Task: inverse folding
């Protein structure tokens, strides 16, 4: 992971911050002989400032509707989050009832107001969520809560993921040592706009719900909303941040130096989880990172970078390690943004080196053999300049492989 001055990567994920405990168990929603975790719980010792962003799909999972209702009722406060995998609890007539039941079961066991419990679900759309396995597992789930339970919770929200996504950092704010960490899941049906996948982030920094929401909305624009695996936007995408305030810093209630420090910590965690999500795209063999510079503004750079990352033809070329730069320029050209195509330069890079393939919108001589060596690596950078402006942005994705079709041709099993 890229180093950032003043921030140190640490272990712990969602339990890296003070005051948080988590757990994960197998309750039986997943019909899996290996008994992988399918139910997760996160609990804070204190009432937390809480912010969230959700999918912009018109079809929204019942958990999203319940989360929005609960956060509105509490004024942006929460104390716990329960989540399940394998079943999205979406497009079901009893979906809201089941989502509220999950919150109520956790609240009863923990002795909380159920409005302080948030809920997330991920998995197959349109299948009735069985509440009985969740009810039977609640005592075990709560009994296993631990300051070291973040990894078990991260495992419990996985679907077709091949590994858990956990990142945490330590930093100083107002002379106090603070921590911010998160967990994410997602491998397929990943495309902006937000959130993209299920994501839960915790911090012990003190920050108001309003400023926490501002930071989350700002950062999601340049991280998760710049991520695409397959162009399909989920119905359950959610990203939630909880702040316990136990670090003891003066509460952040307005813009300023402290807010900037906190926002950067949030960016570091969310950016790294975005990269992990892209790297673990369904069937993927390569992480693709497209950085656009020289744009008139950040929004233009984002649009162009996302256009390239979302191109199926480009993704296929990267799978084949084919330096078919024409596909890159084609995707740049149909991006809905204003710039001079005759000022576009393209460079391909990896740990094996870099090579220029396009200058001023036209091809230039380059070694196909060298380009092949560069593109055979499992992390590829596509560097594109579109002018002399100050706007820069990065988008993340993955190659398109045979295995993607295999996975999604038999997803419900």
Result:
């Amino acid at each position: 992971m890229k180093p950032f001055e003043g921030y140190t990567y640490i272990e712990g994920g969602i339990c890296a911050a003070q005051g948080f405990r988590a757990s994960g168990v197998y309750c039986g929603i997943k019909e899996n002989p290996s008994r992988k975790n399918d139910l997760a719980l996160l609990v804070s010792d204190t009432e937390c400032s809480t912010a969230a962003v959700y999918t912009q799909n018109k079809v929204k999972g019942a958990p999203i509707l319940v989360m929005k209702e609960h956060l509105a009722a509490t004024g942006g406060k929460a104390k716990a989050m329960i989540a399940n995998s394998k079943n999205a609890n979406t497009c079901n007539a009893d979906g809201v009832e089941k989502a509220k039941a999950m919150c109520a079961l956790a609240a009863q066991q923990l002795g909380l107001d159920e409005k302080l419990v948030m809920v997330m679900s991920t998995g197959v759309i349109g299948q009735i969520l069985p509440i009985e396995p969740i009810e039977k597992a609640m005592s075990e789930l709560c009994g296993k809560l631990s300051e070291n339970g973040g990894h078990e919770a991260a495992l419990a929200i996985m679907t077709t993921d091949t590994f858990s996504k956990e990142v945490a950092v330590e930093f100083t704010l107002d002379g106090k040592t603070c921590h911010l960490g998160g967990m994410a899941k997602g491998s397929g049906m990943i495309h902006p706009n937000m959130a993209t996948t299920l994501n839960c982030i915790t911090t012990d920094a003190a920050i108001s719900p309003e400023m926490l929401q501002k930071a989350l909305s700002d950062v999601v624009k340049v991280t998760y909303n710049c991520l695409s695996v397959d162009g399909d936007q989920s119905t359950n995408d959610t990203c939630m941040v909880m702040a316990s305030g136990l670090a003891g810093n003066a509460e952040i209630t307005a813009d300023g130096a402290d807010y900037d420090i906190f926002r950067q910590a949030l960016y570091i965690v969310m950016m790294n989880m975005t990269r992990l999500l892209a790297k673990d795209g369904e069937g993927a063999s390569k992480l693709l990172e497209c950085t656009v510079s020289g744009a008139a503004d950040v929004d233009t750079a984002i649009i162009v970078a996302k256009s390239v990352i979302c191109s199926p033809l480009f993704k296929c070329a990267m799978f084949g390690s084919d330096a078919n730069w024409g596909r890159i320029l084609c995707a740049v050209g149909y991006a809905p943004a204003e710039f001079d195509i005759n000022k576009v330069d393209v460079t391909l890079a990896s740990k094996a080196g870099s090579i220029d393939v396009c200058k001023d919108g036209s091809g230039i001589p380059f070694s196909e053999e060298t380009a092949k060596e560069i593109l055979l690596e499992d992390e590829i950078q596509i560097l594109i300049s579109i002018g002399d402006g100050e706007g820069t942005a990065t988008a993340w994705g993955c190659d398109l492989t045979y295995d993607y079709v295999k996975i999604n041709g038999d997803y419900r099993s």
User: Anything to note?
Assistant: The chain has a mean pLDDT of 93.
